[in-house]
Specification:
2 copies of one chain form a homodimer. Chain A is mainly alpha-helical. Chain A has 11 helices and no strands. Chains A and B meet through α8, α9 and α10 of A and α8, α9 and α10 of B.
Chain lengths: 197, 197
DNA sequence: TACTCTGATTGCACTGAGTGCAAATAGGCA
DNA sequence: TGCCTATTTGCACTCAGTGCAATCAGAGTA
């Protein structure tokens, strides 16, 4: 952690440089063929410094962007006190992906080209799940089990939508997919709702 | 792979011996403190043989029991041709956990004592998710996106129930939790269904 | 400018996961 | 008994990840 504000700036630049290096190298050569030394060298930093910034090699590819994490936290804070969990989660999740198709598309393409990355991608989604769960759990009157299930199910709508999305064919519809998932669950996967599309 | 049937028997015994050794050691000392050498030695086998049976250290703890995988496949095969996806998944998932509380309780306790195992547990659940998705995807008339979402959501009900289950306090209710999760989603997380409990 | 203090970077050494390969071994079968 | 094949094992290797101590950079102070 950095005390002075300027340090934090430098830190984020270092993080971004390593993320960019990792992305570029893994895209070209695959995850297994790229070593942490390679990534560090590409970013002009020592191997040991890489591990000051990221706990694992995969983290440089999939750890949440600090800005994104803050944005999600803000969206959730704004949703505090909503009368119903599920519609509120729906608004938060659709807002969360809106305008960020590009970032998600990059990861999507990466996983398509290197399927071995899928497992890391999954654990990375854990951050989102935790944030959603913390929010549902602190909503007054929420049953703990319902809170956990709603948060995990909402996270599943995101992962499913990311996986199903075909950005090359239709780059504008990620939000639609997420919203459709929430709608399907709102109606309990009835035949009727299936037929809506 | 083994050609003769007797080989397969020996193979499964070897797997079980290593699983038992891993479970016992990790329970006592934690995941990080136990090495693959330790597990192999405890099972009376060489380190290299461990990796003939399991791809990673975590796999010895969390890879699906072959019997369980076969059982799930059979339950899904029996459900082929069901008119509605979600009720069919509900029947399959509740049947899948029924009578297997003990196995799940062991894993549950392990994760409680050693939280760092949660991430491995998550990726292990991937097998179930894949099996469910293969089934939903092959049901005639199923929209691919709905199939993916239903399978992933069903898998989420299982993971959420496993995490919420308190076997020490109420050892008989895992199936109830799973069924409750399916019920909650069937009713789309409405206030009304929340109030049911 | 020189000095100091603090936090970040780096090098070094080490443990342990996971893999490829070739030698040894065990067991079924003629 | 001797062959044949699948499995086990030992060995050597790469690389992820960590702890520690030395070094370095840069902001503040006199």
């Amino acid at each position: 952690m950095s005390t002075r504000p300027h340090r934090e700036q430098i830190r984020r630049e270092g993080i971004r440089a390593l993320q960019a290096a990792a992305l570029s190298l893994v895209e070209r050569h695959g995850f297994a063929a790229v070593t942490v030394d390679d990534i560090a060298a590409e970013a002009g930093v020592s191997r040991r410094t890489f591990f000051n910034y990221f706990p694992t090699k995969a983290a440089a590819l999939f750890d949440p962007d600090p800005d994104d994490a803050e944005r999600l936290a803000q969206l959730l804070a704004d949703a505090d006190g909503a009368p119903e969990l599920w519609p509120a989660l729906r608004r938060v999740c659709t807002a969360f992906v809106t305008g960020h198709e590009n970032v998600i598309a990059v990861r999507r393409r990466l996983i398509e080209q290197h399927p071995e990355l899928d497992q890391y991608h999954r654990t990375a989604h854990h951050h989102v799940e935790i944030a959603l769960h913390e929010w549902t759990a602190r909503q007054p009157g929420a049953d703990p089990y319902v809170a956990a299930l709603a948060a995990n199910t909402a996270a599943t709508t995101l992962t499913t939508s990311f996986a199903a999305w075909q950005p090359d064919q239709d780059p504008a519809t990620l939000v639609d997919l997420v919203d459709r998932a929430f709608a399907l669950i709102s109606t309990g996967f009835t035949r009727h709702s299936d037929a809506l599309h």
